[in-house]
């Protein structure tokens, strides 16, 4: 069963194609991170699922319903990228307003404010709240009425590391109750171990999709090894190990991750070597691999 099913979605603004043949699905209880540079199409994707944009081609279904239909609207909740609340209203008033809009009793409001950790400021105007507190209020707004599909557009921007951790704990709880969650973010490091799958968008195209570990493995990025030679040994080292000379005394080598241990052992045992430094591919390298060139090396 899927909560969100998107097939060959294409969205255009005039002659500009913002989303190009995108297909993905998200099951109840699953958390998907949508990643991509500025302008990759993440917000456009959310606005399409919400039914705000009419696709040029493709189909979307939310729990079997068309985007924008009453049934779909009842299932989906959304936290926009730049959440803005009336500055003069208190947190309690803001959330009560949204609860009424969703047909929920205002009795749900205080427990939600407590859940996101801003109950202490509930009776203060939102204009006096910090950005992180307003972001938490935005999340509380998205949690009203136990939605089946949560769309969160860069929900952690402006949050400090502790708030970020709390945020993901809350998302895990919501997903644990069966909601499907799609959230957008700018980097893999943040979503590592916190989402089930990632989908990487590049210039409106879905260039990679899957569990992060599988994407990292498929990228087959290489380890970088920098070797510093003892005085007068650089030429001999290059003859033995190859690589590129770097500032006269160092060599830069790259090797398949599977072969790195053997190579490092051989280098470390060489008498001409003064120092060795190994750099493994980071999650940022994996992200760049897919988002910059569509996964083509
Ligand atoms: N209403 C619009 N009219 C014309 N172009 C638009 C419109 N909305 C979005 N775009 C363009 O579509 C592309 C995708 O924009 P979108 O906001 O979806 O990117 P994003 O991935 O959310 O970026 P960011 O990370 O900066 O929020 C951009 O090039 C943007 O300029």
Automatic annotation (TrEMBL):
One of its GO terms (molecular function) is ATP binding. This is Copper ABC transporter ATP-binding protein. SMART domains: AAA (SM00382). Residues 4-228 form the ABC transporter domain. Keywords: ATP-binding, Nucleotide-binding, Transport. It comes from Seohaeicola zhoushanensis.
